[in-house]
Every structure is written in C-alpha cells, then in structure tokens.
Amino acid sequence: MLSFLPAPVRGIIAALLLVLNTLIHAPILFVFALIKLVPIPPLRTWCTRVMIRIAEFWISCNSGWMALSGRTRWDIEGLERLDYNGWYLVTSNHQSWVDILALQHVLNRHMPMLKFFLKQELIWVPIIGLCWWALDFPFMKRYTKAYLAKHPEKAGQDLATTRKACEKFKTTPVAVFNFLEGTRLTPAKHQQQQSPFTYLLKPKSGGVAFVLDAMGEQLRSLLDITIHYPDGNPSFWDLLCGKVRHVVMHLELKPIPAAFLGRNYQEDEAFRAEFQAWVNQLWTDKDAHLARLHQQYPTPMDRSSH
C-alpha cells in the first residue's frame, strides 16, 4: 500500500508503528498482570487468557504494518493441521531476525502463542522483559558445570525452577519454542563450526531435552518448521522497508518419542546419545528438505553458483 514511497521512508514508518503498537498494548497488558497477582485461581486463568488475546492482537497489528510496508508472498504448507487448543514443542531453522515475526504472523491464532524459554537476566529488558513476565514466558537459570562443581548443592535447582514456572501451563495450552541451532546461520558461523549440513548449523540438543524434562507430559507433538527465503536471508530492516518479497514455510507435526519423557539428559549418558541421534536425524531431514526448497525456489546465491 505504501509501495509508492522510498524503501527507507517505509522502514521508518514501519518502525514507528512497531514502537507505537508496543507502547499501546504493554500498559494494558500490565494492568491485567497486576490483577493476576490476586491469589484466586479462576481469576488468574481468566487474566492469562485475556493477556494472550492482547498479545495476539499485538501480533495482528505487526502483520498490519508488514502488509502496509510491502507485498510479501507467503507459501505456507501444513497450517491446517494445527490446533489452537493443543500443546506443542516447536522448533525451526534460524536464518534471520525476521524469522520470529514471520513465525508469529503465520502461526497467530492457529495454535497457542509461541513462548520462548528465556535467560533470567532478560527480564530486565525495558518494557519487553515485563511483557514476557506478564505473559508467563518461562525464565530459567542454567548453571554451568564449573559453577556446579563449586556449588554442588545447586544441582537440579535449575530444572526444579523451570518445572515450577511451567506449572501454569497445565491449565492453558502452550507452544514452547526453541531454535535448535541457538543462533542465526551465517557463512562465517557455518565455516567456523565445520557444520556437516549444507543449509544449517549444528543443532544443540540440551535446550530441547531440558524443555521435555520440565514439561514432557504436557507437550503432545513436535512442530518442526522449515523456513526458506527465496530472495536470500533478509535483515530486520529489510522487513521494515517491505523488501521481503517471498517467504516459504513448511510445517510438519512429528511425534515426540514416549521413551524421551522423564529422562535426565545431563546424568543419563545412554539417553543423551539416543536423544542427540534423534535430533541429528531431524536436522538431516531438514537439510534435505531445504535442498529441495533451494531447487524449487533458488536464491540469488544459488543462481550465481550455476
């Protein structure tokens, strides 16, 4: 709709709309977060649902400025199998800061709102940190092996704290999200890792195993998402400027092996090897899937290499 404007102007307008959207919705969210502090379970459950609706409307407004800024073609497969009232473990390849907003845009109201396991320190991020807290994003405190060696009494406390944080998800459907690669794919990172995959970094199994250990009985399925940008990996500024012209996203539901539930990833060596093999197979399949997508929707780099 704003295609007649220069891209930088569209970017500035979109950035202002994003900030305005957040500043409008955050105070409303905080009001219900304060009401939720009243120790009445039905009231807390009602407030949780209201706050989720507020967050979903925030996401819808973001979809609005994305449509205003540019015309993106969305090729989505597998959306019809999702259940808004389900419990999911969700993972995806990670190529750009755009991934999160693209995922929110596609999945909004088709499944429970995505929630990330966050480092405890992130609660202090201005405005957004409080929003994460109000929306019950689970904050976790992970101890390093070196720290536990000096403070063995802390062993198991990180998992216990996370389990406590996840108790509230028993009454409200949730989709817990984790980028298995842990960071965005770049040629430098790919080379530094000497990744065995063509289009992916090495997956990190520990975070997902931690989630399953904390709330495995609640999570019914794994939603495995593969994202591909035919125009090349965009920057967040590209999204604001309306330069993301095409997004391909494939969603596939996979069972979580029952044998993985209630197992200790850190202490059970046999389980750790079994779990890592499962994750590596997921990534092998995803790499092959991305190879097919690169053939079907070649990027500028794919075309220049031929």
From TrEMBL:
TM annotation in the entry: 12-38
Superkingdom of this protein's organism: Bacteria
Keyword Nucleotide-binding part of the UniProt annotation: no
Key words, A-Z: Acyltransferase, Membrane, Transferase, Transmembrane, Transmembrane helix
Provenance organism: Halopseudomonas aestusnigri
SUPFAM superfamilies referenced in this protein's UniProt entry, alphabetically: Glycerol-3-phosphate (1)-acyltransferase (SSF69593)
Pfam name, any one: Acyltransferase
Domain Phospholipid/glycerol acyltransferase stretches: 88-230
Alphabetized GO MF terms: acyltransferase activity
Official protein name in the record: 1-acyl-sn-glycerol-3-phosphate acyltransferase
Family matches, as InterPro entries: Plipid/glycerol_acylTrfase
